[in-house]
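As a warm-up, study this chain.
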Amino acid sequence: MYLNKAFIYGNLTRDPELRALPSGGSVVEFGVATNRVYKNKSGANQEEVEFHNIVSFGRQAEVIAQYMKKGSAIFVEGRIRTRNWEAKDGSGKRYKTEIVADRVQFGPKPVGGGGGNWREHTAAAAPAQTKEGEDAIAYPEEESKPEDIPF
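Now compare it with the structure written out below.
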């Protein structure tokens, strides 16, 4: 059995571009930047950045286009695909390698903006508050002692 799986966690390099397919479905394309920090031979920290092309289809594409913006953090799970086509100017074949997203998870909203309506979207899932700053969840008042833990 062969395996084609990619896991990417990074930031969007541009706003997602949502388009309609001839079949009526939705497709979104966007870029994600990831980085790697390592020490070179002299012991100094070096940073290496990679840029990934991501594509998603259907309802997931619509949600990404609605809530994600340039700079937003995202986790993408998918498969790697390379497409090829003949260039319109007759200069030969063109190739594009991209990750087809099977699943995505939105990361925390960047401090300086981005992320679209992410905060509004998650506000509905926040716990209700009874008084200012007080959660509706009642926590027990007993203390836990280390000797009470069974392991």
